Amino acid sequence: MGDAMTALPLVFDAPRRGIPPRHLADLTREEARAAVAELGQPAFRADQLARHFYRGVADPAQMTDLPADAREALAEALLPGLLTVVRHQTADNGRTRKTLWRLHDGALVESVLMRYPDRATVCISSQAGCGMACPFCATGQQGLTRNLSAAEIIGQAVAAAAAMANGELDGGPGRLSNVVFMGMGEPLANYPRVRKTLDALLTPAPHGLGLSQRSVTVSTVGLVPAIRRLTEEGRNVTLAVSLHAPDDELRDTLVPINTRWKVGEVIDAADAYARKTGRRYSVEYALIRDVNDQPFRADLLGRLLAGKLAHVNLIPLNPTPGSPWDASPLPAQREFVARLRAAGVATTVRDTRGQDIDGACGQLAAADQVAGVPSVAVPVPSVEPPVELGAEGDE
Ligand code: SAH
């Protein structure tokens, strides 16, 4: 592969940019009650506001259980609009919709809502840009702009739930059932806010979105300390590990974080997660023609995962602008699947929704789409990374 493909530095610490205005979804229930009391209102109004937020009600005029003369002030203080739609793009006969959001400081992120016969999944962003520098990923090529706040992440899921409830996608009203952290960013590099988001997703309505643990998936490049931390937290969501190569030599180049935490360490951490949660983890593997799709690599991957509580999700590479790589041809895909299955490893090939609107995995690159909004890449310090990733600005 060319030098240009590996030139980006790894970035752990998000640049400090303007912190979004305070939002109820960033606060604990106690903090929200205190904030409401400070506004001279009874504390239970915090619960009323939460109910409106998680139902996707944004217009104070519709919050009729709040006193008319206090609605505006309460909503302004605790439910500021953090996500502004720049545009929606639809594909797959109106069943996939990508939304480009502008944040308070002009940063741009995307989310993708996908409707299937039996479920509706939203793919959300946890950071603006990404610091993990994977050369085949459009977001990875942008660099990291900043971490999203919990409210900014949760807001994407709430908007998707409201869009489903309102029948904004083809097929009539429905229910958001799944959330995957496979949009822009590395969720485990923004750990505290992602954890807060998990709480909001899993908390029963009306104080959260009431999703089940198995229908929420956190996807990571393999930040081992953060996987271990997630293992201890007891929110048994599904874990997806973006492996993309079974051997360190290749993975060092495809997933540069591998230079810090090797294949073996990542798989060990995922195994520990599976033991603790009883939940199968998924191994993501983008099939890239003549790069990682050789039969011997299928066999290596099969040996690595045989007997483990894991399944492999193969994603034919979604080509990104400027990249010399493309998807493995079908015969190579079939051979790869056959070898994994022969090794006893459950394997599926992902259907790639939204390709024609650049809404498929690894294609999200919001900053490229609107002129004048630069993304900022900051060189990684030469010291060892802190164990508490993303600790900056934490609660
Ligand atoms: N940072 C997280 C989540 C974001 S990407 C992670 O890496 O897991 C979600 C998935 O899409 C990851 O498995 C990622 O490796 C994969 N992906 C990235 N670019 C891709 C591309 N061009 N084609 C196919 N999959 C891609």
From TrEMBL:
Enzyme Commission number(s) from the entry = 2.1.1.192
Q: Which residues bind S-adenosyl-L-methionine?
A: G185, E186, S219, S242, L243, H244, N318
Q: How is the cofactor bound?
A: Binds 1 [4Fe-4S] cluster. The cluster is coordinated with 3 cysteines and an exchangeable S-adenosyl-L-methionine.
Any one cellular-component term (Gene Ontology): cytoplasm
* Active site positions: E110, C361
Radical SAM core domain location: 116-356
GO molecular function list: 4 iron, 4 sulfur cluster binding; metal ion binding; rRNA (adenine(2503)-C2-)-methyltransferase activity; rRNA binding; tRNA (adenine(37)-C2)-methyltransferase activity; tRNA binding
Catalytic class of the enzyme:
transferase
GO terms of biological process kind: rRNA base methylation; tRNA methylation
Species of origin: Blastococcus colisei
What are the required cofactors? [4Fe-4S] cluster
* Positions annotated to bind [4Fe-4S] cluster: C130, C134, C137
Where in or outside the cell it occurs: the entry states:
Cytoplasm
Name the gene that codes for it.
rlmN
Name-wise, this protein is Probable dual-specificity RNA methyltransferase RlmN
Xref: InterPro entries: Aldolase_TIM, Methyltransferase_A, RlmN_N, RNA_MTrfase_RlmN, rRNA_lsu_MTrfase_RlmN/Cfr, rSAM, rSAM_sf
